[in-house]
């Protein structure tokens, strides 16, 4: 579910000049998954994203914990590349979002790229090409942002000299991949036609280097990866979502998303629990309750975001308190202009106040002008 906020808004902005929704490939309930092929791109669907978030322990002195996000999006312009003799002809845009959160410094740094899919600017490799996806780095930074699959692990690299962040990391799955929804079909509404192909690696061991504010650190840590593919997601009554990816201290992982109406009520909910052994269970609608305990208002966008939660899943014996590692983890994009969403590192405590894990939360549709009619 996460990080399609920017892709959704951009696709909506392009829709008036693009093909009608009926020309895009619908999610097939009978999709036959095949890996590693399905780690790669799925042309014909309108949007697709590869999303990584996690926590890194940076070697000192002084040692510190960093949160990170890395997302590459394929935003469809046309179902197929135009049949014209031009290197600029493209069926997709390549968009990237990346961030580093340093709670000790009290700073969240966000970076973005947006390029046409052309040989010099960015591409999505057909299976089994390498790298899996890439884009040119932001203006003022050399090289590329890259995502690759080596056969046993993902490799991610990015740099933004203006923002003072870079990382080059490998991410090795510690659990089997988990599907969200039966056969990896993730419903977004009770209305037919709103769904995605969706799977995750809920725990990956991370190792590499990260640069923040002029210092380079050796880093190790743990991450979460989502890959999601869709042509339609949000139903007409939905304005955004709250998404939780929580890695719990007891070895379990919990994914919850709630799609909201304009009045803040929940239109649709989905949840998956991945056991310490890697087995995935989908929870019935209503099996998880999420209660907002406090809010934070962005001085930049004016959006009022939830900023603390109590999450209960009685069937799983879970009563969790979730709190941001840093209040301001709002991603404020310039491409498309005006988009803002909250994407941040969180700490998890149990009902007695003990440490219960770490995670990431995404909150979309709260900022003015960020309605996502995909």
List the SSEs and their pairings:
Elements: H1 4-15, E1 47-58, E2 64-76, E3 92-102, E4 107-116, E5 122-124, E6 133-136, E7 144-149, E8 154-160, E9 165-173, E10 178-179, E11 185-187, E12 195-212, E13 215-232, E14 240-248, E15 253-260, E16 266-274, E17 280-283, E18 289-292, E19 295-297, E20 304-306, E21 309-313, E22 318-324, E23 330-332, E24 340-350, E25 355-363
Antiparallel strand pairs: 1-2, 1-13, 2-3, 3-4, 5-6, 6-7, 7-8, 8-9, 9-12, 10-12, 11-12, 12-13, 14-15, 14-25, 15-16, 16-17, 18-21, 19-20, 21-22, 22-24, 23-24, 24-25
Any key phrases for this structure?
374 residues; mainly beta; single chain; ten-stranded antiparallel sheet; 3% helix; AttH-like fold
Q: What is the fold-level CATH name, i.e. the topology?
A: AttH-like fold
The number of distinct β-strands equals 25
Number of helices: 1
**What is the CATH C level class, in words?**
Mainly Beta
CATH architecture term: Beta Barrel
Estimated share of beta-strand residues: over 45%
Helix content class: under 10%
Poorly predicted tracts of residues: none
| Envelope shape | globular
| Cα-based radius of gyration, to the nearest Å | 19 Å
Question: What distance separates the N and C termini?
Answer: 13 Å
Largest sheet: 13 strands, antiparallel
Coarse structural class: mainly beta
In words, what does this structure look like?
The chain is mainly beta and 374 residues long. The protein has a single domain (4-363), classed as AttH-like domain (AttH-like fold), CATH 2.40.370. 3% of the residues lie in helices and 51% in strands. It has one helix at 4-15, and strands at residues 47-58, 64-76, 92-102, 107-116, 122-124, 133-136, 144-149, 154-160, 165-173, 178-179, 185-187, 195-212, 215-232, 240-248, 253-260, 266-274, 280-283, 289-292, 295-297, 304-306, 309-313, 318-324, 330-332, 340-350, 355-363. A hairpin with a 4-residue loop joins strand 7 and strand 8 (154-160). The longest helix is centred in the first third of the chain and has 12 residues, at 4-15. The model has no long low-confidence stretch (mean pLDDT 92).
């Amino acid at each position: 579910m996460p990080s399609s906020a920017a892709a959704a808004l951009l696709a909506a902005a392009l829709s008036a000049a693009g093909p009608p929704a009926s020309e895009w490939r619908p999610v097939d309930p009978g999709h036959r998954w095949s890996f590693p092929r399905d780690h790669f791109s799925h042309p014909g669907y309108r949007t697709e994203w590869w999303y990584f978030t996690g926590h890194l322990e940076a070697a000192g002195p002084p040692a510190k914990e960093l949160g990170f996000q890395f997302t590459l999006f394929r935003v469809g312009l046309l179902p197929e590349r135009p049949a014209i003799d031009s290197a600029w002809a493209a069926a997709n845009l390549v968009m990237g979002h990346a961030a580093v959160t340093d709670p000790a410094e009290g700073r969240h740094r966000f970076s973005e790229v947006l390029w046409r899919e052309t040989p010099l600017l960015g591409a999505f490799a057909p299976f089994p090409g390498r790298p899996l996806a890439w884009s040119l780095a932001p203006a003022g930074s050399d090289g590329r942002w890259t995502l690759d699959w080596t056969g046993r692990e993902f490799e991610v690299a990015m740099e933004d000299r203006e923002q003072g962040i870079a990382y080059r990391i490998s991410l090795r799955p510690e659990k089997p991949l988990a599907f969200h929804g039966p056969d990896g079909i993730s419903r977004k509404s009770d209305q037919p036609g709103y769904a995605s192909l969706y799977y995750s690696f809920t725990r990956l061991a991370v190792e590499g280097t990260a640069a923040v504010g002029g210092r380079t650190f050796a880093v190790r840590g743990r991450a979460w990866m989502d890959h999601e593919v869709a042509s339609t997601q949000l139903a007409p009554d939905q304005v955004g979502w709250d998404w939780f990816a929580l890695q719990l201290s007891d070895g379990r992982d919990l994914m919850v998303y709630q799609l909201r109406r304009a009045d803040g009520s929940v239109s649709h909910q989905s949840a998956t629990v991945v056991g310490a052994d890697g087995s995935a269970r989908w929870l019935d609608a209503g099996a998880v309750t999420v209660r907002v305990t406090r809010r934070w208002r962005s001085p930049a966008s004016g959006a009022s975001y939830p900023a603390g939660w109590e999450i209960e899943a009685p069937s799983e014996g879970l009563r969790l308190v979730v709190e941001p590692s840093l209040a301001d983890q709002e991603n404020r994009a310039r491409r498309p202009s005006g988009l803002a969403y909250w994407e941040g590192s969180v700490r998890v405590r149990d009902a007695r106040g003990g440490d219960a894990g770490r995670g990431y939360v995404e909150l979309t549709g709260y900022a003015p002008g960020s309605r996502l009619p995909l």
